[in-house]
Amino acid sequence: TEGLAKDDSGAATGGPTGNDTGTGTGSDAGGLAKGDSGNRAAAKAKGTLNRRAVAEIVFSNPAELERLTRLVHPLIAEREKQLVARYRGDSGIAAIVLDVPLLYESGQDRWCDKVIFVDCPESLRRERLRKSRGWEAETTKKIDALQWNTQLKAQRADYVIRNHSSLTELANQVETILARIRQEFA
Fold first, then answer.
1. Of the ranges 33-37, 106-110, 169-173, 174-178, which one carries the lowest mean pLDDT score?
2. DSSP one-letter string for 132-179
3. H/E stretch holding 180
4. Can you tell me the distance from the alpha carbon of 182 to that of 97, in angstroms, rounded to the nearest whole number?
């Protein structure tokens, strides 16, 4: 899949790896796990990644996280730049929305005209991660410790979406914010 996909609102959405949920197999990180004999558990059959195993490895070992970051982030940044350039030239695209988990930590916020932070109560976020990715509370605590706290991210953002109820409510918040941004840039 392409990294950014045009949706019904006319916005190009997604992350540079082509997968918003982080569960796809299109990442260049596959070679990282397969190439290191100590991390073979991170590689599945057919050359795909076992993202749960990768998470366990990198969030338990700061050196492995640093190694993964050094290798993957430049690839992601380059792909992101290519996709943004491509979609900026498309008159049918009203906005480009990047899904960047470490936006502030990586400094990529400097490339954005506006930042929308999606906030979710910690207990609900942990429950969702447990259901969708199989992560236990210990894993999410390790991940949280490596990121800016949510209050700081919310303070720095131009807009905050509260993702704590229904998909309908979430969609309404997104539509309202996109309408404000479109009006601002009209």
1. 33-37
2. HH---HHHHHHHHHTS--HHHHHHHSSEEEE-SS-HHHHHHHHHHHHH
3. helix 167-185
4. 13
29-66 tens-digit pLDDT: 444 444 444 455 565 656 777 877 888 888 888 888 88
Name residue, tokens 């930590």. Answer: 105
The model carries a pTM of: 0.70
**Contacts for 26 with CB less than 8 Å, ≥ 6 apart:** 1, 17, 18, 19
Closest CA to 102 of 84, 115, 89: 115
Nearest one of 58, 82, 69 to 142, comparing CA atoms: 58
